[in-house]
């Protein structure tokens, strides 16, 4: 098990304009600032498995699942097999300690391929949905099998000292330069 330095909280959704306005009011009241001065960075909420990845001096050190938010499981060997998770970061202003949080998920094409193989091989489990397939895959002990299942990952949050930007959108932009995959739908 791994204890998170900072708890990994759940993300929330808004489904309509009123929920967004209510959220803006809570943020404005909580920060004691005018609603009109708040800027947002919006991005899709992916349905996969939240992970925390730690880099020291730009080198992958470990990865853990969200777990209960305070304690997760070490899944370093499994996360290292995800092709778009950099093992060494590139670029300038990389913090000496950096924790990134993101979502590991199984693209529909990989999910369909996995289930087709399972249907042919009666010994393998057919998954109900890509989220369950991603969660089950990341917990496999055999990292070679994890690699075969073609997981993907998007970064959505950066923690650490001396972050490369003062805003969330600025951190996402810097993370992209470090080698992380960022959603194209970020606005």
Task: Catalogue the unreliable spans.
Answer: none
Q: What is the helix content?
A: 25-40%
Order of helices and strands: EHEEEHEHHHEH
Please give the alpha-carbon distance between the first and last residues.
35 Å
Overall pLDDT: 92
Strand order of the largest sheet: 3-2-5-6
Sheet-strand content, in percent, reads 15-25%
Shape: globular
What class would the helix/strand composition place it in?
alpha+beta
Radius of gyration: 18 Å
Number of strands: 6
How many helices? The count is 6
Largest sheet: 4 strands, antiparallel
Structural notes for this entry:
By secondary structure, the chain is an alpha+beta fold. 31% of the residues lie in helices and 20% in strands. The protein is built from six helices and six strands, in the order βαβββαβαααβα. The strands form two sheets. It has a four-stranded antiparallel sheet. Strands 1-4 form a two-stranded antiparallel sheet. Strand 2 and strand 3 form a beta hairpin. The protein starts with a strand and ends in a 9-residue tail after the last helix.
């Amino acid at each position: 098990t791994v204890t998170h330095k900072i708890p990994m909280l759940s993300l929330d959704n808004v489904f309509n304009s009123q929920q967004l306005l209510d959220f803006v009011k809570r943020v404005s009241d909580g920060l004691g600032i005018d609603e009109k001065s708040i800027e947002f960075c919006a991005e899709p909420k992916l349905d996969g498995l939240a992970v925390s990845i730690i880099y020291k001096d730009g080198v992958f050190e470990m990865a853990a699942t969200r777990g209960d938010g305070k304690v997760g499981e070490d899944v370093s060997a499994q996360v290292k097999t995800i092709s778009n998770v950099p093992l060494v970061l590139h670029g300038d202003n990389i913090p000496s300690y950096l924790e990134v949080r993101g979502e590991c998920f199984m693209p529909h094409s990989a999910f369909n391929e996995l289930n087709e193989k399972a249907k042919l091989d009666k010994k393998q489990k057919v998954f109900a949905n890509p989220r369950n397939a991603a969660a089950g895959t990341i917990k496999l002990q055999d990292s070679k099998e994890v690699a075969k299942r073609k997981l993907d990952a998007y970064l959505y949050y950066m923690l650490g000292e001396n972050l490369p930007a003062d805003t969330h959108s600025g951190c996402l932009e810097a993370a992209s330069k470090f080698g992380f995959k960022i959603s194209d739908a970020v606005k």
